[in-house]
Every structure is written in C-alpha cells, then in structure tokens.
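>> received
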Amino acid sequence: MASERYSSSYYTKQFFTLLLLFVFSFQHNTVECQGRLNEQNYSESGIAYPSSPSQDREDFRKIIVSIVLGGVTGFVGSVLFALIVRCFVQYLNRTPILKGPVIFSPKISPKTLQSALAKENHLLGSSLNGRCYRTVLDNGLTIAVKSLTTFESGSPEIRKKRVKREIQKELEVLASLRHRNLMSLRAYVREPDSFSLIYDYVAKGSLADAMNRAKESELPLDWDVRLRIAIGVVKGLQYLHSSCVPQILHYNLKPTNVMLDSEFEPRLSDYGLIKLLPNLNRATSPYTPPECFHNCSRYSDKSDIFSFGMILCVLLTGRDPGDGFFEEAEDGGSMGCWLRQLQQAGDAKEALDKSIIAREGDEDDMLMAVRVAAACLSDLPADRPSSDELVHMLTQLHSF
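>> returned
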C-alpha cells in the first residue's frame, strides 16, 4: 500500500528539490571562495597585485576543497530535508484507529447499534474465525452481525495496531461496493481483538440451508430457481473480478457464504475478508482449489471459479461435496472426479438430483451445466473459464 500512496509526481518533486538544493549549495560555496580569492589579491589601497604561482595553486586547492565540501553538505542536507518531508506526509496519511461504530447506512445510528449489540441475540452460526448472529435495532430493522476474531492470542500490540489500520482501509473499500449479488457492508464496530461487521438480514438463510431443506423435501427447488442462483453467484464474482480496481477475490466461496433473499436471489458474503481472517490460510474444505491446499499465496480469480464449480455441482446433484459417498465411488475421491468420470462415460444424467422439478427441455440445460461445472473443476487454473465467460455460458441456457 505504501507504493500506492506515493505517486510518481511526488518522487519527481523530491528529485527536483534535491537538485535545487545541491545547485544552490554549489553556487554559494563557489561565490564564497571567489570572494576570498579576490580579497587576497587586493591590497588595502584597492590596487590589485599579481599573485605568485605557488599562491595560485594553493588558492585553486582551496576552491576545489570548498566546492566538494559544499556539494557534500548540500546533498546531505537535501536528503535529510526529503526524509523529513516524507515522514511528515506519512504521518498525515496514517489512518487513525477509529473507536466505536463506523456507519455506512442512514438507517443505522451508532447509539441504536451499540444498544442492539449489547442484547441477547439469536446465533445463526459459528466458525473457526468467529460467529454470526441476528439482532434487531430499536427502529425495528433486523440486521446480521458477523463477529470476527482478527488476531491470534499473543499477537504483539504494535502488530495489532498496524493490522487494525489495514483492516479499516479494507473495510472502507468493501463498504463502497454496490451490486445486487453482494451483501453490502452497512457498518462495523472495532473491538479490542475483533471486528463486528453489520449486514442486512436475509430471511431465507444461506444456500446450504436451502439445499438441506430441499434434501428433506421441505423446500422445492426447481431448475429455474437453481439456475438463477448459479447465475447470480457468478455475476457477483464477475463484479469482484472485473469491475473492482484493484481486483477483489473472494477466497472463501461456499454455500454457507451464499445468502438468499425472499426471491431466491443470491448475495455473496465474506468476500475480500482475507486480511480479517488469520485462520483462513489454514482452513481447507472441499471448496478449496487444489493449487491452494498448502499455499494460499497462489490464490487467483480462477481459484474462485473452482469454488463456484463446486457450488454448481451442489445445485445440479443435490449432494454435499464432503459426503462419504464420493470417497467410496470407483475412481472417485472427490465430487469433481466423480462428475468427470460420469461425463466421460456418457452417464452424466445419473449425477442429476432426482428431486429437481424439471420442465420439458430442462434436462438438456442441466446436462450442459454439468459440462460447465466440469470445466470449472479443472485441476489447472488456466483451463478454467473466467467469470465473464461463465455469465455468457449460463445465461445462454434454455431457461434464460
């Protein structure tokens, strides 16, 4: 971030400042030496007398020494001046560690938010990095609160302050994002060792909840709804990958982080929170791309595409990728291997969820979607389609 803070024009100004100070010092010392030489060549009566060759050589040495010393002095002074200016600019640009709630929505006030956070709240879920719960503000607005533990025990206080400033900058960026398929950050509250992120509450819950209810025949999910969910998820990724500068990666895409509104329109949550989740680098799941099992630094936009491919598989098959069924499957071991095996054998129809209510022509669309999912689950990131390509492929299916 430091490199972004200082533009090329800033360093250009510093260079010219150094140059001007150097020239000034050089010229000043040259004039001073010349004046001393003239004083020695003139008598008290104002009449100039020629100097001897030895005196000329001595005077010339003094001029050279004075010029060198003046140049060095000017250069050192210029460097010190530039460093002072740079430190001053850094101090002005430092992000202060904010206390209390930081609000991005006119519907939420700091007082009502702090009051709501102090109440007993309904727990929605928990993970390695924190918990999520629902609460109601005094004005009747229901919100979802994600409390994230951002520091490991024993972290030095100096490191905590630096990380807190970085987190605040990231949250300011995330709060500026607006897309129908993203959960918008409405506010956040800084705690001593954690951050509480405030989002809109969606009554339908997550995609994982919906798929579990569909498996128990409590919630019918026809192909139209499932395809709409898939397209909404990939459109959210497309916005993060293509419209955000710099590009934002999700890092943790899975059904529990896909929320559904009353119309089953998906909204991605937990996107861009890599700096807030210290345990995310160590957490692996069936949705983790193979290139990131041991090294999260290799994560790219194509890694998000792999996670989307797993979500598309869940929508098509109705199965959880962590199900032991895939370990027992012949030549399987994972949902992706199992799906590719069926596709190569021409039995992709066997992978489809039997509970899907399909209309005439939907089966062909679902089989095409199986091909799309298999491409997303390629072992090599370069072989996976981009989010732009996926939006085009999925919206061209019969239902849309």
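>> Strands lie at 101-103, 122-127, 130-136, 142-149, 185-190, 194-200, 258-260, 266-268.
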